[in-house]
Write a structure and sequence with these properties.
With 264 residues, this protein is of the alpha/beta class. Helices cover 23% and strands 32% of the residues. It has a seven-stranded mixed beta sheet with strand order 1-2-3-4-5-6-7. The protein has a seven-stranded mixed beta sheet with strand order 8-9-10-11-12-13-14. Helix 3 links the parallel strand 4 and strand 5. 49% of the residues are buried.
């Protein structure tokens, strides 16, 4: 089974993978200093990024964080629906869809080929910062196709808003203007879903390195270091959208940098 289910206290969580996305190492490293470009190109010969959507069941509600590539997948092989079915969930079961930001590999599953909402019963949530960015100055065909159908029903939130019992958004700004993560907490256990605050494990060791797709590379680096320090200090599990499935691990501080350890 492709899905990975685990508990955070009394809250049931499932990593539901979508189809992998393909990026060249050069796309990731182009903005890095030359010495780190060499390192990342050597460490990252296979240009595939996982797409780890997170399904959370809390207090009778089903919450889905991000929707994968969906109709924007050039290979036409979206896997999110197949894997949701494996987890015993249909699109009609989803109560809340949290769009952590407006990049195509997170919003592509909002609508189907006919332009209809896939999660028709769900309340869709996004930060006002990111909504205004992607429906305004950064409008592109993907945002127009996948976000505009939500215009009359999107709930726009602040980056630190509560989402459901035990689940709160937190600001992870810099990747996009309104990018958020989520803290899930129950019975003394925590999961910090960092989403796209990092794209590759190389950034755990070098949080100062921001790829081309971080809108504000300086702020993104500051956010990354802050979240890594928080995760290490609190000893909580973390999840990353693009790390190898299921994208779960722990962070520890080592000198002036950090180390990521995968956990199942």
């Amino acid at each position: 089974m492709a899905c990975h289910t685990f508990n955070v206290g009394a809250i049931r969580c499932t990593v539901v993978p979508d189809a992998t996305n393909t990026l060249t190492p050069e796309e990731i490293a182009e903005r890095f200093p030359p010495q780190h470009q060499t390192s990342i190109l050597a460490m990252y010969p296979a240009p595939e990024f996982a797409l780890n959507c997170l399904l959370v069941e809390s207090d009778g509600q089903v919450i889905l964080f991000d929707t994968g590539m969906g109709i924007l997948n050039p290979n036409r092989t979206p896997q999110l629906h197949t894997h949701l079915s494996e987890a015993g969930i249909t699109p009609q079961d989803v109560d809340i869809v949290v769009l952590t930001h407006g990049h195509g590999d997170h919003i592509g599953g909002v609508v189907n080929d006919a332009g209809q909402l896939v999660f028709a019963n769900a309340q869709h949530i996004m930060t006002r910062l990111d909504w205004d960015h992607w429906t305004g100055p950064a409008l592109n065909p993907s945002a127009e196709r996948c976000l505009f159908p939500l215009r009359d029903r999107i709930m726009l939130i602040e980056p630190d808003a509560p989402i459901a019992p035990g689940i709160r958004a937190f600001p992870a700004l810099g990747h996009t203007p309104g990018h958020i993560g989520a803290m899930i907490e129950s019975q003394g256990e925590k999961l910090m879903h960092m989403v796209d605050a990092m794209h590759h494990s190389f950034q755990v060791t070098h949080p100062e390195l921001s790829p081309n797709f971080d809108t504000d590379p300086v702020m993104a680096a500051q956010t990354r270091r802050r979240l890594l320090a928080q995760a290490a200090a609190e000893g909580c599990r973390v999840m990353l959208y693009h790390f190898g499935s299921p994208g779960l691990g722990t962070i520890r501080e080592e000198g002036d940098t950090f180390v990521f350890t995968c956990v199942a």
